[in-house]
Hints:
By secondary structure, the chain is mainly alpha-helical. It contains ten helices and no strands. The protein has helices spanning about 5-15, 15-40, 40-60, 70-90, 95-100, 110-115, 120-125, 130-140, 145-155, 155-180.
Amino acid sequence: MQDFEVISQYLQTQASMCFSLLYSRYAPKIYGKCLTILKDEALAEDATQEIFMKIFVNLSRFEEKAKFSTWIYSITYNFCIDYLRRKQKEDFLFTDDMEKTADFADDIPDELLMEIEVQQLRRVLEEIPADDRTILLMKYQDDMSVRDIADVLNKTESAVKMKIKRAKEKAQRIKDELFSNI
Length: 182
């Protein structure tokens, strides 16, 4: 059964097997995204459970304007980023790097970002802020279109393009700082 059929049947019958089917389809993907963003297995497990509670409570609000997987990704992304923001505020370390980053005249071509060796890329991704890491992973790892990313982030496409541009610039700058001697 397609996702929309499972959702429709669940909403009509409240059959737990329908929700279990959705859980089995998406729990590993949600856990993987949570782990990528939160970088902690226990937190990712807890987040996955909390995200599924949100999905369960809000399933009737899913309107099929986007794919179900996009809707779930949006919930997952927002949950994880909200968690990180709350944690940073608690630690008095929260700063909105996106607002304070100066615009750069030159755009970083995608090819330069792709040339970074895998180990270097992992290190660079660890060093950049979670928002930047996530948007780059959405674009290049998950191969999401700018439009899909805009839907997930509830932003305009031009805002997403700017976020991607700035994240690429940060990644390139950090790569240059970390590996200039190599």
